[in-house]
Amino acid sequence: MRRRKPGPSGIVAAPLETKSQDNARRDNIASVAQGRLKTYETGAPNARRFLDLLSRRITRSLAVSLTACVHCGMCAESCHYFLARPDDPTMTPVYKADQIRRVFKRHLDWTGRVVPWWVKASAPENDEDLNRLKNVVFGACSACRRCTLNCPMGVDTALLVRFTRGLLTELGIVPEGVFNVSRDQWETGNQMAVSEADYLETLEWMRDEVRAELADPTVEIPVDRPDCDVLYTINPREIKFDPRSIAHAAKIFHVAGEKWTLPKWGWDQTNFGLFSGDDRLGAFVAGNVYEAAARLRAGRIVISECGHGYRSTRWEGYDWASRDQTAPTESVVVTLGRYLAEGRIRVDASRNPVPVTFHDSCNIARSGDLVEEPRRVLRQVCLDFREMTPNGRENFCCTGGGGLLSMAEYRPLRLEVARIKADQLRATGAGQVCTMCHNCVDGLADVIRHYKIDMKVVQVLDLVSRALMAPR
Ligand code: SF4
Ligand code: SF4
């Protein structure tokens, strides 16, 4: 059997199941959406099924994170939940991880079988216990991995959180928002259920906008053009709510003389499988992108500004889909940096005079390894670029990571703990915060609105487009 290699976060795809198991899982998810939990497959209660899945899916990297914790508490200060609620021990990463750790100990570790009271081992007994677990792993953690980076034992709490989410998702015990978005992505190939007609119409609309802006009728936004150097993939939010970001990219590609295309199918680089812990959804969505690149014989896959989309498509997706990477896969910010370095585009920084700070997305800096690349671009296109503190891999989450923006029931807690992010943003004194993630745009905008901060959220493509000079 082919051995699966973990991605940079240590995530390893779960083994694929049979068609009938898959159908049963989806039926169960549907039943939850209708407000009732039901037994899974052979009539096994959810709690028993949960333990069965746990035993079958445990991997070596998970086992290490489950057993290596020495409960030193050093991770507590990394977590914005705990920093905002320092008197609440249930907000510490170690408490959250312990909720699955105690089940592992009771079910799979000899200490928990022999002396469960000593190692605090226990197993879920009913749906109420599983719902409590759901509220911890979906509701009190944005899977930002800041605690992971700061654990001296290398415990990956976010990996445990995602693993637990995956087990609950399998049973259909998920927040309604996660269910809805996952269903849309399964059924339509994109997480916002954008129809093909809407997709193509929006691209044509943006093409006309760029033609008018550049006074150049030759501008194209090509779809399904074979043998291009760049296959551009986007976040459905760009079609639905922010089509200007597609126009910015089209304008820059045109000026750079890029041979590029979007695919007609496989254009959604976002991936709710990362948030729900469902590796099969992850494989399906990332696989659509890889298949589009192969079908069109694209030279490279370029991912628009999206944190979890970048991590999923660039890193984890190849593992989930059990595919080797055959085309280089990069963020559009890397592409922009290359255009600047090669002189394919020229910019005038004086067109961006408002002070700009940069918010590193967790999935890009901490889990995706892109830290310097956006800074190199921003220093060339802005007059006043200033760092926030902390930054880079140590930056705080926008608070909307881990799919939390889709989970309305956890919004009050999310905004309460966002106080940490609000203080960090305010301290920069910048008028704009730039982020290379559409999810962070919404997360930060929510924080800025809630805490009444005088700051606008922008993206790298916005700033580069504004600074872009006409070709010589
Ligand atoms: S997860 Fe790491 S930092 Fe946190 S308590 Fe355990 S060993 Fe200490
Ligand atoms: S992953 Fe982030 S939100 Fe979750 S426990 Fe760790 S630091 Fe807190």
Describe this structure in words.
The protein has helices at residues 19-33, 46-57, 60-67, 80-84, 93-108, 110-114, 127-137, 146-149, 157-171, 176-188, 196-214, 236-240, 244-256, 272-276, 279-295, 307-320, 332-342, 362-366, 372-381, 411-417, 419-428, 438-450, 460-467; strands at 230-233, 260-261, 300-303, 329-331, 356-359, 385-386, 432-435, 456-458. The chain is mainly α and 472 residues long. The protein has 3 domains: 41-171, Fumarate Reductase Iron-sulfur Protein, Chain B, domain 2 (Orthogonal Bundle); 189-341, no CATH class; 349-467, Rossmann fold (3-Layer(aba) Sandwich), CATH 3.40.50. Helix 22 links the parallel strand 7 (432-435) and strand 8 (456-458). The protein starts with 18 loop residues before the first helix and ends in a 5-residue tail after the last helix. Residues 1-22 and 28-43 have low confidence and may be disordered. One iron/sulfur cluster (SF4) is lined by residues 78-79, 81, 93, 96, 141-147, 157-158. One iron/sulfur cluster binds at residues 69-75, 93-94, 151, 153, 155, 157.
SSE order and pairing:
Elements: H1 19-33, H2 46-57, H3 60-67, H4 80-84, H5 93-108, H6 110-114, H7 127-137, H8 146-149, H9 157-171, H10 176-188, H11 196-214, E1 230-233, H12 236-240, H13 244-256, E2 260-261, H14 272-276, H15 279-295, E3 300-303, H16 307-320, E4 329-331, H17 332-342, E5 356-359, H18 362-366, H19 372-381, E6 385-386, H20 411-417, H21 419-428, E7 432-435, H22 438-450, E8 456-458, H23 460-467
Parallel strand pairs: 1-2, 1-3, 3-4, 5-6, 5-7, 7-8
Helix pairs in contact: 2-9, 5-9, 7-9, 11-13, 13-23, 15-16, 17-19, 19-23
The site of one iron/sulfur cluster has 13 residues, from helix 5.
